[in-house]
Amino acid sequence: MEELLQEIDEPVASAHGVRLLLWRDDLAHPDLPGNKARKLKYNLAAAQQQGHHTLLTFGGAYSNHIAAVATAGRLFGFQTIGLIRGDDPAQGAALAELNPTLAQAAADGMALHYLDRSSYRRRSEPDFIDEQLARFGPVYVLPEGGTNALALRGCAELVAEIQARTDFDALAVAAGTGGTLAGLLTGLAGRQQAVGVAALKSGGFLRAEIDALTQQAMGQIYTNYALHTDYHFGGYAKNSAELLGFIEQFRARHGVLLDPIYTGKLLFGVLDLIRQGHFRRGSTVVAIHTGGLQAWAGWHARFGTSG
């Protein structure tokens, strides 16, 4: 396995006396890397213990989570069902054409079914879940994004893995549903700091979500984290020339490909926070590359931009 901890030599970090490292969770597994695999780890174990043979989950047409669940099904012998937000492409709806993410999910054996937006909004309602169980039979249900208490347990293991290699003052991660950040907080147990960079324009709701997740998993709310919502570049999966330029420059300098949905925003945000003096001089900050590089295929299909 390649070295998972990489020094990131950036002038702004040197100028402010901050040691910046990158944890390469994108290299952790050839087929199922990153935080999505960590979120699935204990859920898959629970599904097996409960005697389930089928996983059912939800996601958008370009979802990293959908891709990860489909891959996990192929690797660990589960049948998988994806309930996708959008119109059935068989009905000729351009928005939901079988893009590279869904094509790969189908190739991995996932059965794809489509929900209109009003139905999709019900995805967490118990009555709706009961309807799906009646429709598909016994299945292990994974929430959108894979975030639940078992997911936090898997993400928490990152803390010990990083601590085994280096001391640090802060961990930084991109935030979508907030599950990975919440998992890191449970692993830190109130010690070092955590920093979340929201990938969504409406990222302000995330703090309540994160606090609810740690309360559920650990019975407490942690205060040793900051959530930054100013680096969304227009919103989730929006095309931004500035962000794409940063990603290209980062790859040229460090040989690391970031994705345009999460990790590009994370590193842009972390470097800007260093510039603003958010981290004290002499501190060590570890940014976490959570994978998600499958998103590039869908990005090219949508925007035709380089990456």
UniProtKB/TrEMBL annotation:
Keyword terms, alphabetized: Pyridoxal phosphate
Active site residues per record: S63 (nucleophile)
GO MF annotations in UniProt: D-cysteine desulfhydrase activity
Gene3D superfamilies from the UniProt entry: 3.40.50.1100
Known cofactor(s): pyridoxal 5'-phosphate
Domain Tryptophan synthase beta chain-like PALP: 13-291
Pfam family, one: PALP
Keyword Manganese: no
Designated name of the protein: 1-aminocyclopropane-1-carboxylate deaminase
Origin species: Hymenobacter sedentarius
